[in-house]
Specification:
The chain is built from 30 helices and 18 strands. It is of the alpha/beta class. The protein has a seven-stranded mixed sheet with strand order 12-11-13-14-10-15-18, with helices on both faces. A six-stranded antiparallel sheet has the order 6-5-4-9-8-7, covered by helices on one side. Helix 22 packs across helix 24.
């Protein structure tokens, strides 16, 4: 004790509150300190001291239910059920004052149970249930709680008591479940996670049974099993856990996040605990958290900010993305703004190589480049553009085929940023006047990522474009591309032929390579020798021999194809037919018992024949070798998070299809309203739009007669071919895309 009679601990807390500018009437620090003391005494086996700490905690916060419950449990463990019953009686009054009669009735029943035991022989066994020498954190013995990911009632087990409660914070109190720990999980019996998911309507009984069987074999958490099965999403799992533990769910992708609030907690602490403060309401701080049992995280947030904490459940992916967007990126830009380049120079060429080498090794520049790449990969970007301009530098991502502005680093980092990327790609940083190409290999979250780097000298410096190649995405299945069931069945039948040529047409970036890889993956068996010629090899496929074109040493598509024909291949894939020589060799291979896949740049399927004829291939060779042509485009899909129905105007329907315009009833279509998850665009992800032309006797006769593409297309349509416009219309009516998007990507000469 101090001379003035005050507790030295209380005096230190008051001083600390003054330094943090925490109001003196805010008891958060005192409550947290007293609770930590109680836990320390329990670990040391000092139950009497822990009881004293809980009594002082009651003095500080007399309306907090969990304090009464923990104190009653400590009394019961120490062999004094009479005092435990008295504490529970006091809690009954607290619940009545709070307007929670159901909770009051339940606690009163516990008190009555203890009082009855005082009169019977069961008192001795009750006193000996938990020895004083081995105390445990308080938890109601008669109400087992289920862990956050427990599978069902049969495997229900008592949840481990939370290591730290939430003293001094007003909790979220659903009417049907009064909380025992403010802002944290209640101590009442919990519904099994599987039952909650069934009530939400996101899984079926059959899926739950199958997941439970896997759980019994592997002991993996039920929620993770259902996610890996594809039965639920990460958001569904977070919502269910939130219901189970009385945590409201928040989607950080669509919530309004205050960057200043995010930075109230250090980045390393947010990463360690997987928490993110995202909004403030007076003295209350809204905090997103991944693990509902990690109450220590919220205690740390409260101690650092001095604010009351209201937790919300979210997914780990959304939390990490928000951390990158609002916390790490802002801090890095602030650091890089202070990187010194030296005297002001008019052009990039005047920055010395020695200074460049020094700058690219500085931590802010390295971190900024790593963050740009990491964020691009996480957001699903296909390309990263770093573009110099007169007054600075811009970073843009191509997401779902559309470029988005991401950030504008400080002007003084222009040379350092480009040089850092060139070093990573093993390029010459001294050469700034010629284009260069390189490659970077990364490993992000266990995924193998290849970056194709290209530099181009521009008026204001070097522009860098990096194509992101995620090796895991090469394993996409044909059924995931968006083909209609009839189109996919016909394509697979053609791909199983022993010989012939299959062509895929479309502009750059229309997904031709992805379709080829998915097809090769489908037909790849141990009995087949598959060889590919590519420029470049974008993805490495197992048990497939892939050849990289290298014009510098004379290895072109034509020369490689000649050599491949002597390698006893069954299936050949030619990345692109660019000239007459390659086309002739591909046709020759198809006519000599090989199945050949290749691509052409044409607007539709019928134009592939005229393109081959224009290259100088004889009509009889084209008609004999080509067995099918697939034309395709990639259209953006409507964002599922902000998807909404609307009444389609007649003009939009007329532009897409005259048949729809004649329909009397109103047609309901869908569109994206725009949210944080889709960058306010209304679109998220892409889907293929296809047009498959199967070569029949009629088509062959038209090719032999050198008929124009329009005549070949009309003949194919009369035989059942569905055009890309018709396929796009089907996807619009299914709510997968929009009229505007289909019209944007589908070029058609149809009248």
């Amino acid at each position: 004790m101090l001379r003035d009679g005050r507790d030295p601990e209380d005096s230190a807390i008051q001083t600390y509150k003054t330094l943090l500018r925490v109001p003196q009437d805010n008891r958060t620090l005192e409550c947290a300190w007293r609770y930590h003391q109680a836990m320390r005494h329990l670990r040391d086996g000092r139950v009497a001291d822990a009881i004293r700490d809980y009594k002082r905690l009651l003095d500080l916060d007399p309306d907090e239910p969990f304090v009464y419950l923990d104190l009653a449990e400590l009394y019961r463990q120490s062999g004094t059920p009479k005092e435990a019953a008295a504490v529970l009686r006091a809690l009954v009054a607290v619940y009545h004052r709070a307007g929670m009669p159901e909770a009051a009735s339940e606690v009163e029943a516990r008190a009555l149970s203890l009082e009855r035991r005082l009169d019977g022989a069961a008192r001795a066994s009750e006193d000996a249930q938990i020895p004083e020498a081995q105390p445990r954190p308080a938890s109601p013995p008669e109400e087992p709680a289920q862990a956050a990911d427990s599978p069902d009632a049969e495997t229900e087990r008592a949840a481990p008591p939370a290591p730290l409660p939430r003293p001094g914070i007003e909790s979220v109190r659903p009417q049907d479940r009064p909380p025992a720990r403010p802002g944290g999980p209640t101590l009442l019996r919990r519904e099994p996670l599987g039952r909650i998911l069934l009530q939400m309507g996101v899984i079926t009984e059959e899926q739950l049974e199958r997941a439970l069987e896997i759980h019994e074999r592997t002991r993996e958490k039920l929620g993770r099993i259902l996610v890996s099965m594809g039965a639920i999403t990460e958001q569904d799992l977070a919502k269910a856990i939130g219901i189970q533990w009385n945590y409201p769910y928040v989607s950080l992708a669509s919530a309004e996040v205050d960057p200043e609030v995010v930075r109230m907690v250090p980045h390393h602490l947010c990463m360690r605990h997987k928490v993110l403060p995202y909004a403030r309401n007076g003295s209350k701080l809204l905090v997103a958290i991944v693990d509902p049992l990690n109450l220590l995280a919220l205690d740390d947030v409260r101690l650092i900010t001095g604010l009351d904490v209201e937790p919300r459940i979210t997914t780990e992916e959304e939390l990490l993305q928000a951390l990158q967007k609002y916390h790490q990126l802002g801090a890095l830009l602030e650091q890089t703004a202070h990187v010194e380049v030296g005297p002001e120079v008019p052009t990039e060429e005047e920055v010395s190589l020695d200074r460049l080498r020094q700058m690219v090794d500085e931590a802010p520049v390295v971190k900024l480049v790593n963050l740009i790449l990491d964020q691009a990969i996480r957001e699903g970007a296909s390309d990263v553009h770093i573009e110099p301009h007169r007054h600075g530098i811009h970073v843009r991502y191509r997401i779902d085929g559309i470029l988005h502005d991401i950030l504008s680093p400080p002007k003084n980092l222009k040379a350092a940023l480009v040089s850092r990327i060139k070093i990573m790609a093993n390029l010459d940083i001294a050469e700034r006047r010629r284009p260069q190409d390189g490659r970077i290999h990364l490993r992000v979250d266990g995924r193998e990522i290849d970056l194709r780097v290209s530099t181009l000298p521009t008026l204001f410096g070097e522009k860098v474009v990096m194509r992101i190649l995620d090796q895991s995405s090469a394993l996409i299945q044909l059924g995931q591309l968006g083909m209609a069931s009839g189109v996919q069945e016909t394509w697979e039948r053609l791909a199983s032929k022993p010989y012939g040529m299959l062509l895929i047409t479309g502009p750059t970036g229309s997904g031709k390579t992805t379709t080829l890889y998915a097809t090769l993956t489908k037909i790849n068996t141990l009995e087949k020798n598959i060889v590919t010629i590519e420029d470049p090899v974008e993805y490495q496929l197992p048990r497939i021999n892939q050849v990289q074109v290298n014009p510098k040493v004379g290895l072109t598509f034509a020369t490689a194809l000649r050599s491949i024909l002597r390698q006893d291949p069954d299936i050949i894939m030619v990345g692109e037919i660019r000239d007459q020589e390659t086309a002739e060799l591909a046709v020759q291979a198809a006519l000599t018992g090989h199945l050949v896949f290749s691509t052409l740049h044409t607007n539709d399927a019928a134009s592939a024949f005229t393109r081959l004829l224009d290259m100088g291939i004889e009509p009889y060779l084209v008609a004999s070798s080509v067995i099918g042509v697939m034309a395709q485009r990639l259209a953006r899909k409507i964002c599922p998070r902000c998807k909404e129905p609307y009444q389609a105007p007649r003009e939009a329907l007329r532009r897409l299809s005259e048949d729809l315009e004649e329909v009397d009833k109103e047609v309901v279509l869908f569109r994206g309203a725009g949210c944080e998850a889709c960058r306010q665009t209304g679109y998220k992800g892409r889907i293929g739009i296809f047009e498959l032309l199967v070569v029949t006797d009629r088509i062959r006769s038209l090719v032999l007669a050198r008929a124009p593409a329009t005549e070949i297309r009309e003949a194919a349509r009369s035989e059942g071919m569905r055009t890309m416009r018709e396929d796009g219309l089907e996807k619009v009516l299914e709510g997968l895309s929009t009229v505007e998007e289909v019209l944007r990507v589908v070029y058609s000469t149809e009248e």
